[in-house]
Amino acid sequence: MAMSRRAAAALAPMIATVLLAAPAGATPGAPGAPGVGDDYFPAAGNGGYDVRHYGLDLRYEPTSRALRGVAVISARATRALSTFNLDLRGFTVRAVTVDGRPAGFARDGQELRISPHGGLRRGEPFTVTVRYDGTTGRPTDVSGALYGWVSTPDGAFVANEPDGAPTWYPVNDHPTDKASYDFTITVPEGKTAVANGELVAKRTARGWTTWVWHAPDPMASYLSTAAVGDYDLRWSKGPRALPIIDAVDRDLGVDATAGLARTAEMITYFSDLFGPYPFSSYGAIVDDDTEAGYALETQTRPIYSGPPRESTVAHELAHQWFGNSVSPARWQEIWLNEGFATYAEWLWTEHTGGQTAAARFAALYARPASTGFWNPPPGDPGAIDLFAGSVYTKGAMTLHALREKIGDRTFFALLRAWHTAHRGGTADTGEFVRLAERLSGRDLGAFFDTWLYTPGKPTSW
Ligand code: ARG
Ligand code: ZN
User: What is its EC number (predicted)?
Assistant: First the structure.
């Protein structure tokens, strides 16, 4: 929901020039930027508007992999716009309307450029509707990992991080523009469609079942999901009657959910440490895809390509605070997600009688300086190495080293204050460093420089 104020300020003089120069009768405003200005993913997101809500109506047929969608996107122009972009890859766009009026559109790579009739005034709310269809596949990200809408033999495994949402719907694809979502997903009768949030309706007619899910909390697009498969839905309750909805592939054995058994206990533990659980429901999607081999913290409903380990479940739960509620302001800040979730995993392991975080840190710190283990620096890993081991492990070690430096009291107060200050929004490392310095009363510039931005093994800090 928030947009970069800095970018808007930088563009203001340019907009004024364009307005003055516009000949009589021309559409006022200027074209919206094709990206938000994220150095790692320059095409990700778009400039000039702020999405409030996505209403996604999808129909998917797993055998033919045919996906037909109607996306109804409610937004507000943050400046006068002659055109604006959405991100969408593949598909045939059949029609675009803005506030019910047919709008012009053109495509260029992942940019869908839309020309609303008469343009949009600064501050104007508008609704853009995009009708599209096509055949889905098994897309991969810059590092070669499967992501986005991944067609599987029995449905689809959907996990967008970092920029895979445009593989299934038109979107302002950047964490700085969070929105609420409604999903209406129609699949062949017998299949289950599961998305973020809560199930609000299910109806079957003429061999097709429509599943309606409502996700009211602000969500970054990389955390949206709409998995389709042979899932059984299981309802239970977490602390404070939090609804927990798990979707488990019917073809998996009974032990497939062993790793989920302590979910409610984990929510209580992390709520005590980090502050109240930030969303309206929780649960897991456990798929039987043998190839994808990963987990993603999709908001309220992490997805696991196969039966998860308990430590992975703890990791994805911790992301609900760190990553999902407090999201990275740009992709370079990924350690704020992965370092924190990995450290939370260590805390859970210690809490449940396993290795202590201190012992884990010590064992890892014993690794020789010559190994690749210490690189790339987690504070600036580069787009291709966004999910390098060091982002997770050296990121978590950074937090443990910080804890030793500022003491347990200040450290745990910092984790809570970090979530409180930025919940529902985005943040960057500079803000984390300043908060840590304020709470500890210490200058931590050199410390974070060493751990986050300097290649190799930290030897003094
Ligand atoms: N955020 C996910 C996790 O740590 C990892 C996503 C990995 N994505 C990828 N394209 N390799 O749980
Ligand atoms: Zn993670």
Answer: 3.4.11.2
